[in-house]
Amino acid sequence: MMTETIKIAAAQLAPVSLDKQATTDKVCQFIREAGDAGARVIGFPECIIPEYPAWDELIPMDRSQAHRLFRKLFFNSVEVPGPETEQIGQACKDSNLYAIIGVNERCAGTTGTTFNTQLLFGPDGSLLNKHQKYVPTVAERLIHANGQTGTSVSVPTDFGCLSGLICGENANPLAMYSLSLKYPVFHVASWPTHFTPEIEMQSCILNSTRGLAYALKCFVINSVGIIGEDEHIRQYLEEERRKPLATILGPDDNILAGPLKPGDGILYADINPSDVIVPKYAIDIAGHYNRPELFAQHFAKYFEGSGQEDSLRTLNL
């Protein structure tokens, strides 16, 4: 099915602030809208359910306002599996599409541990994969634990491998290299509502994901959160800092669709998955352009004097 044209989609939306059920309802509404439009894949922003904790870089952590927000975030975070994942799975099944959705995940049975998580659902409604952000970025460390490593961030589909990474992970060269070995055709990059006020977010998103699209030779769905009427965020940001916009990139790093206009919406692009093949004629970092022995110097010290020096050569490292 890689030669068939399919429709892919990037969701751009504001959460219903720190309201797990209302935001889940909104996400499911977007899934069904994309399904009605014929989309087979849709990506959603980082921690869209119940809200990206944007205040963590805006309000000092010792303020009572930050404490109230964290408490409310914890009680509205998603346990996996749970009623929210069941509801989203049903929406994907009804719509016959794949969806990658960012959630603030609460570790079941704890009173404080949360993760920045991407959930990947299939068109049969099943939860196919869970990816926790490897390393929380900047002030996220106040809220999120380190994610597990050694887990996949991709699944096979009828029309090629579908993958996802969260925010800054899309610029992590080791994450990118690991992902390349799965030969992704579609990749969802989930982004938050804003970065620190001094960083121009749209430039950062495109700089990161254009490099990823070009290196991996895949389509990239940039799904971006937007800030709603939440005064605990809006009061700290100038208007121009509240306008990140969704885009869809091709395997040669060009913008195929977008940027989407400000506000809630879904960006679509009709693409042919086989268009990822010809770009690899020149550069395929998982194939003929791959030199894994470049890592040998970093591993050699672990083998030195162990009698296992030949292991490096056996593994082509």
UniProtKB/TrEMBL annotation:
<feature type="domain" description="CN hydrolase">
    <location>
        <begin position="6"/>
        <end position="273"/>
    </location>
</feature>
<dbReference type="Pfam" id="PF00795">
    <property type="entry name" value="CN_hydrolase"/>
</dbReference>
<dbReference type="GO" id="GO:0003824">
    <property type="term" value="F:catalytic activity"/>
</dbReference>
<dbReference type="InterPro" id="IPR036526">
    <property type="entry name" value="C-N_Hydrolase_sf"/>
</dbReference>
<dbReference type="InterPro" id="IPR003010">
    <property type="entry name" value="C-N_Hydrolase"/>
</dbReference>
<dbReference type="InterPro" id="IPR044149">
    <property type="entry name" value="Nitrilases_CHs"/>
</dbReference>
<protein>
    <submittedName>
        <fullName>Nitrilase/cyanide hydratase and apolipoprotein N-acyltransferase</fullName>
    </submittedName>
</protein>
<comment type="similarity">
    <text>Belongs to the carbon-nitrogen hydrolase superfamily. Nitrilase family.</text>
</comment>
